[in-house]
Design brief:
mainly alpha, 2 domains, flat
Length: 169
């Protein structure tokens, strides 16, 4: 996918928002696909110019769960959730959703990238977390996972019920 300058994104979105041209016309003029352009518009409407700025962020597992819970609670699409939470790409949200479905909560924890450091390990011992702190973190993680699974179960039951009702008609 082509890289676009922030200035071009802003100009394109503002052109569209003036109402003179359709989304397709403006997207074609700037050489961006319709879905990508729609994402720019959503980000701009929720966060202004800052939404279109390039940023590199590591998201916490809790933040990822907040995004996924928002989607479950509101029925929002990955594109809408990305716009609301100021995430540059809907595919990021889609990857989180897929990872959670396939591997559970552990999949939302970011893995360290790159080659391992060749630096010598620090010789002073790292103080371990208090047992209550680590247990409290695990309890919170399990609560979030439980809440997500309950909502997922309710959605599955609702879908099954609607399928049964549609077969009866």
């Amino acid at each position: 996918m082509a890289k676009f300058k922030v200035e071009d994104k802003i100009r394109a979105v503002r052109e569209y928002l003036t109402g003179h041209d359709s989304m397709n016309e403006v997207a074609k003029r700037y050489g961006v696909n319709k879905r990508g352009f729609h994402q720019w518009i959503e980000l701009y409407q929720h966060h202004g110019v800052e939404g279109l700025m390039k940023r590199y962020t590591n998201y916490t597992p809790e933040f990822k769960m907040d995004v996924l819970n928002f989607m479950n609670d509101t029925g929002a699409s990955p594109m809408k959730a990305a716009a609301v939470f100021n995430i540059p790409s809907r595919t990021t949200v889609m990857k989180w959703e897929k990872a959670l479905d396939q591997s559970g909560m552990d999949a939302l924890i970011s893995k360290q990238r790159g080659h391992p450091s060749m630096k010598e390990k620090s010789k002073k011992p790292v103080s371990p977390k208090k047992p209550t702190e680590s247990l409290q973190e695990e309890v919170e993680r399990l609560r979030m996972e439980n809440a997500y699974l309950k909502k997922l179960n309710a959605l599955v039951k609702e879908k099954e019920l609607s399928q049964r009702n549609s077969k009866r008609k």
